[in-house]
Design goal:
This protein is α/β, with parallel strands linked by helices. It has two domains: about 300 residues, Rossmann fold; about 110 residues, no CATH class. Helices cover about 65% and strands about 10% of the residues. The strands form three sheets. A five-stranded parallel sheet has the order 6-3-2-7-8. A hairpin with a 2-residue loop joins strand 4 and strand 5. Helix 5 crosses helix 13 and helix 8 packs antiparallel against helix 11.
Length: about 425
């Protein structure tokens, strides 16, 4: 990373001095650490070679950690620590990279029911906000709506962590350059002043929200030594937040399911996620149906998983995008092939969607394009002919709504799709 200029009028001098001290003396104080390395050489070509070799080695380590994250679903703070980043930067990297996901929920009916009950409880008393929950609701632009329906409590160390992240982001206000490796190619990415300004604005809003709209809290009982050891891996602010939730008997809002599971097993803390809060806000009319759908779309496009969709959410998405196969339409329909979606759910929603599409007064070619994609998604992980038999049966049960000609059209589509299946497919 190449830093931009320091602007003393925007960043207190003591923070600039501390930043420069870290850059200068890090390798002396922590000789075994590879998180920050200082390269010196009299030969410019050799210096460049060393720099590229260091980047390559760091990239290899980061790739291994990311593979572990995707396969084992480790908490985001652990991923951040392993890659030498803070939780905010790691979260921002995950939501802006289509290959990765944020594991928000398991996607079961039992989990959804528990979360909704906890939301109702929190609405009557209070809701503890983790850094993860704050970041998501800031992304959605719903912090003020959240505060209008819940008494929001934040642990002091979470605010302290936000301040640290804010100060780090303020140092490079003029932008900077990143270099990473793809295959054998080194790629340079410019992070502009406008990019850093957007990040700074988001952080400023979160800090202002916590300071002005939330109640800051501490613990009555100090963490144990075992707890403090865990905090070295997941961050002291995440440990404090979990202990606070347990101490006051209120749920914690977090979209880091792996972290929530660790803290639930260790301390019995109840956690809820953003979608459950959105459902509560919809039920209490704090947001409209259209707003709810828009926020769900944002979560999907940012890689949050597992997002649960109602049948009407699928069709409303098709209508919103005029039945075109846009990025969000594909993302929504691909929920039918997600590992967390049961065969029964996929078949029932798929059949309902096909019937709804063929009932709509859109051109037949548009119906067929959408219909083919629905069938592709529904049959992706299951025995295709068996799925098609079930879909046909469900469509026949909708005969009272589907006219004979419409039923013929949808059956013709299914037959055309069936002919694309290999004999033993």
């Amino acid at each position: 990373m190449v830093a931009g200029k320091h602007i003393k009028g925007q960043v207190p001098q003591k923070y600039i001095d501390a930043h420069n001290d870290i850059l200068t003396n890090f390798n002396t104080r922590f000789p075994e650490s590879k998180l920050l390395q200082k390269l010196t050489h009299t030969d410019p070509e050799e210096l460049v070679r060393q720099a590229l070799e260091t980047i390559s080695q760091s990239q290899d380590r980061a790739a291994e950690v990311l593979r572990l994250y995707e396969s084992k679903r480790v908490p985001v703070p652990l991923l951040a620590a392993a890659t030498g980043k803070n939780e905010f930067d790691t979260w921002a990297g995950l939501i802006n990279e289509s290959r990765f996901h944020l594991y928000m929920a398991a996607g079961t009916n039992e989990e959804e029911q528990f979360n909704l009950e906890q939301c109702d409880k929190a609405a009557k008393h209070s809701l503890v906000l983790s850094l993860s929950g704050l970041m998501t609701f800031s992304l959605l632009g719903l912090l003020e709506v959240l505060a209008s329906r819940f008494t929001c409590i934040v642990f002091q160390s979470t605010l302290d962590e936000l301040h640290r992240i804010q100060q780090k982001a303020a140092v490079n206000v003029d932008g900077y350059m990143l270099i990473h490796k793809e295959g054998e190619q080194f790629i340079r990415t410019e992070v502009t002043a406008e990019d850093t300004a957007r990040v700074g604005e988001a952080l400023n809003k979160m800090v202002a929200f916590v300071e002005e709209r939330c109640q800051l809290a501490g613990l009555q009982t100090a963490p144990s030594n075992a707890d403090l050891e865990v905090s070295q891996k997941v961050g002291i602010h995440n440990l404090h937040t979990a202990l606070l939730g347990k101490e006051i008997g209120m749920p914690v809002l977090s979209d880091d399911k792996p972290l929530a599971e660790v803290m639930r097993l260790m301390h019995g803390t109840a956690y809820i996620n953003t979608q459950s809060v959105l459902q509560h806000l919809l039920r209490t009319r704090a947001i409209s149906d259209d707003e709810y759908l828009r926020h769900i779309h944002t979560l999907l496009l940012c890689g949050y998983t597992y997002v649960r969709l109602r049948p009407q959410d699928f069709f409303a998405t098709l209508v919103k995008d005029s039945f075109n196969l846009t990025a969000i339409v594909r993302a929504v329909l691909q929920m039918l092939e997600a590992p967390e979606t049961t065969l029964d759910s996929a078949v029932q929603v798929g059949a309902w969607l096909l019937g709804s599409v063929f009932l709509d007064s859109i051109p037949i070619e548009t119906k067929r394009n959408i219909g083919m994609y629905i069938l592709q998604c529904v049959t992706q992980r299951h025995e295709r002919r068996f799925v098609l038999v079930r879909i046909r049966a469900l469509l026949r049960n909708r005969l009272e709504r589907l006219a004979v000609v419409q039923l013929q059209e949808v059956n013709r589509l299914i037959s055309d799709w069936e002919r694309t299946i290999p004999l033993f497919g």
